[in-house]
Amino acid sequence: MVVFNAVAQSSKCEDQFALYEEKVKTREYSDAEGLLEALLKECPKFDAKIYTHAEEVYSYKIRTSRTPEDSQVNIETLISIYDDYEKSFPGNGSVVRKALLLKKHKLADDAKVYKMLDTFFNTHKKKFIDYDALQTYFILYFDQYESEETTITQKDFVEKYAAIAGQVAYAQNELIALKASLLEKQETQMLTDEEKQTIADAKPAIDALDAVADNISIMASKHFSCEILSEYYGKSYAKHKEDVAWLEAVSVVMYNNKCYNDEVLYKVANALYKLRPTMESVYNLGVITLKRGNAKEAVKYFDQAANMDNDIKSKADKYYKIASTYRSVDKAEAKKYALKAAETNPEFGKPYLMLAAMYSSVTKGCDLTDFERKALLFLAMETAKKAEDAEQRYKPTVAALMEQYGERLPSKSEAKAAGYRRGKEITYGCWINETVKLPKMK
Question: How far is it, in rounded angstroms, from Cα 204 to Cα 34?
Fold first, then answer.
């Protein structure tokens, strides 16, 4: 009899939840609110989405409240829902969202909000990935450090900054990996609406985490320098050289503070590369290596990072970085990677602008006559137009280049003197490796 009742209750919860979820998805929030009360009372542990959907409902009601009194009631209801969520599904992150809600509506002082965030950070660190929460957490700690009554030492401050900056990087890596796995899944399977939304939300969340990393780095940098960081982390390197979490945190802190030439950062980045190379850590090692003057080695890391990247825009950016790195040392490789960047992302105009600039500035390296150098401007113009086709925002830039190149084009008399005429082709070797068919000249 007990088993029968349990099955009946489960079936009832399933039916109620399905109806409730449908109302939320169709944004019939008033109807959803009416169904929520029974679910919270009779089926509190049936599905965590009871609470995440309730958060959507009451966040909407708070935004659209007509009076301060209505707003207050909805805020208090949402706080209660966060408490119920934590009770039914401990460690889910609702404590963090509750803390942010209390701070936003000035319902708790900064000390209480900080304590809530700090406790969750220390007990459920892997779930502390909300960009707003990470920034708020750091700012509250930063304000404590700068207050006249502070008992926080510089060592404490560096450690806390490292922990939060490392967590920002962790959150980014988790989102990047999740998006990549869903994009891979999409190639062979249909994604759910929820999975499609996850992909759509990933880019703005990753960008927001980038902004958080920059913001907290700028704030923290006034209290320490690369020399201080190097001395502090240098003392601990031997002890932690195989501790991936420590290496990641140090790498993020020193990289974000642009300590590119520091020996400690170089050792940390290389150790991390050997133990657990990620797309971001490999790319960062490339930047560090390039700053140290080893372009050939840097390109190896950039190429590896690009191969690990499943986002076409980000992958193309990395190929463009390689092209830029090669531009002054190996023009053939620069051209190869510029074209690779453009092929990877057809909506990327910068590679074509780089190639146009390279074609328009050939000097003595390829053993060309003056006329042949000038004729390359036709190729430069054709290539620049591809940048505009890829990205309309480059239209003014391309127009200016057309005018600039047009003033330097060879004349009809110069072509005749060089033994060329309209329609004749010039085949270029060297790094250029292109054929230009001469158009009508003035």
Answer: 33
Instruction: Read off the pLDDT of residues 378-412 as tens digits, 9 standing for 90 and up.
Output: 999 999 999 999 999 999 999 999 999 999 999 99
Please give the Cα distance from 338 to 351 (Å, whole number).
Answer: 5
Cα angle value 65/140/253 (rounded, 5°): 125
Dihedral sign computed on CA atoms, order 162, 165, 169, 175: positive
The amino acid sitting at 291 is K
DSSP code, position 183: H
In the chain the first and final C-alpha atoms are separated, in Å, by 98
pLDDT confidence of 8, banded at 50, 70, 90?
A: low
CA angle, corner 292, sides to 290 and 296, nearest 5? 45
Within a 10 A sphere around the Cβ of 409, how many other Cβ atoms?
16
Q: Closest by alpha carbon to 129, among 192, 188, 178?
A: 178
Residue environment code for 225-240, b if the CB has 16+ CB neighbours within 10 A, otherwise e: ebeebbebbeeebeeb
Reported pTM: 0.71
SS3 346: coil
How far is 106 from 86, CA to CA, in rounded Å? 22
**What is the per-residue pLDDT for 194?**
87
Q: Taking residues 302-321, what's their average pLDDT?
A: 93
Domain boundaries, the chain: 1-90, 349-442
Q: Tell me which residue has tokens 């080893």.
A: 294
